[in-house]
Amino acid sequence: MESFASRDFRRYQLARVAVILGAEAQSVAVAWQVYSITHRALDLGYTGLALFLPGLLFLLPAGHVADRFDRRQIILVCYSLQVLCTTTLLVLTRIGMHTVLPIYAVLFLVGTGRAFSGPASSALIPHLVPEKHFVNAVTWGGAIFQFANTVGPALGGVLFTLPLTRLVPDTRLEGAGIVYVFTLGTLGWFLILIESLGVRPGRMEHRSASLRVVLAGFRYVFHMPMLMGSFSLDLFVVLLGGAVALMPIFAQEILQTGPRGLGMLRAAPAVGALCTSLLMARFPLKRKAGVRLFVCVAIFGAATVVFGISRSLWLSLVALAITGAADMISVIIRGSLLQLATPPEMRGRVSAVNSLFIGASNELGEFESGLTAQWWGAVRATIFGGVGSLVVAGLWSVLFPSLRQADELTSASLLGRVKAELETAPEPATLT
Question: Could you read off the pLDDT of 283-335 as tens digits, one per residue?
Fold first, then answer.
């Protein structure tokens, strides 16, 4: 627990717990509202598309902003926008919505805030702990993230079904409205803690915006097969294997549970990830990081297939927990590769590139899941996605040997491999 010796790291993680709890609870409420209004899988997919599009549109300026301005201030501005968005969802709920278009508009603004806060948050972490404790910080950060992911969806399901009108007859809050009030509280706590951070990284990039400066992150990743393989592997595996958008369908029509069952399904991957991250904090990865990455991706795909064919709630929960455990190991490896193999002055722009891949795999993956479920049904779409993940794992292990050969998660080991890759790149000149 060396990383917790840092005051700023402790406060940042407390802030993350709060805001992730609120965001995950809110995602359950939004998904249930959308499906209750339209009863169409494709409309669940559109929620992911609305969150993804801003990341695509603002990718380049977001990365440059993260390197040019105080990353803490960027985070504060972006999450102030989240407060406005959640307040709007609360108002729309209280007046009674019968269309999903306003929800999509709000989600687009949520995605805009995430597009700018994601690179800034990722690039801020190395400033919170000494470099020798960075992998430990990534591991504990993953554990904290998964803890909040475990509790958040389940809490959202409980709050959604809370009979508050019976307890307080005069209130007009019920269902999603209760969840949104809770999310507002977590956002307020997040802003207070982030404001109290002592770290002031300032600007890392001193050059004015230009096409070459803004595109530097893309050039850096393009000339590094190890990073390119890592980012694209996550993109295609989660794009194909992610079944999060379809969980309301599984909860209501296949497993025949209600909002609380949906909360359990949403929480199950995080349970597996939390247990794995705590284990890895005690027994960290030391060697063969690349090989273990591909093994975990294969396990993720196989467990997704099991979830797709399951008709038992408990078997589904176990399969989802396994996907979360496998993905957690992948997250730790990829997060370490991203930060330890990237110069400090470029971490914002490279993190922005990574955010595009993550956004495409998560939010665009939800759209893909909704679309394929509309064509083939939720079960077939999920099974197809799991098989596709297995195929991608096999192909990428052949196409990106440098990623497969990655060994120790240390700056010395990774930077040595980076140097070798840059020397063989077509344009080995300055990438920044």
Answer: 777 778 888 899 999 999 999 999 989 888 899 999 999 998 998 888 888 87
Question: Using CA atoms, how far apart are residues 89 and 114, in angstroms rounded to an integer?
Answer: 17
What type of residue sits at position 151? V
167-187 pLDDT tens trace: 444 445 667 888 999 999 999
Residue 385 has a CB neighbour count (10 Å cut-off) of 26
